[in-house]
Write a structure and sequence with these properties.
Layout (H helix, E strand, L loop, with lengths): L2 H17 L3 H25 L2 H21 L7 H21 L5 H27 L5
Length: about 140
């Protein structure tokens, strides 16, 4: 197999994996990718790599936009979640404009808190769905 074949196979595998995830797992995947790109952006700024900074900022924003589209607007706290996502995006836009990492720690902290909250929600849902009174 050539490198191109391997990369193509990996891409197909990732797409198939993503299409079989539950919505909670998908949101967690997006949040983890967001966190990874924020960390990558911090590294790029520290290293003075403007191309990587811009690339990782764009990816982080893409993940935020995907999170916005997956938000169930009928859910109880969806408005609050959208406000958080918009705030995080504004921090990323300001980071792009100032070319500093001043707000990235804030975005990363919010992302970590969101990941923790979604993990708890996933556990509660799993417990509720798979716990019965029968033996």
């Amino acid at each position: 197999m050539t490198t191109i074949d391997i990369e193509k196979a990996i891409k197909i595998y990732k797409e198939a994996s993503a299409s079989t995830l539950s919505m909670m797992e998908y949101v967690l995947l997006l949040l983890n990718e967001l966190q990874k790109n924020v960390q990558q952006c911090k590294w790029a700024i520290a290293a003075g790599d403007s191309d990587e900074r811009d690339r990782s900022l764009q990816k982080a924003q893409d993940f935020l936009f995907e999170l916005m589209t997956t938000t169930d607007h009928e859910a109880e706290r969806s408005d609050l979640l959208m406000v958080i996502y918009v705030h995080m995006n504004q921090c990323l836009v300001e980071t792009h404009m100032t070319k500093t990492d001043e707000l990235l720690g804030h975005v990363e902290e919010m992302t970590v808190q969101l990941i923790a909250s979604w993990q708890v929600a996933k556990q509660v849902t799993r417990r509720r769905n798979f716990t019965t009174d029968r033996l």
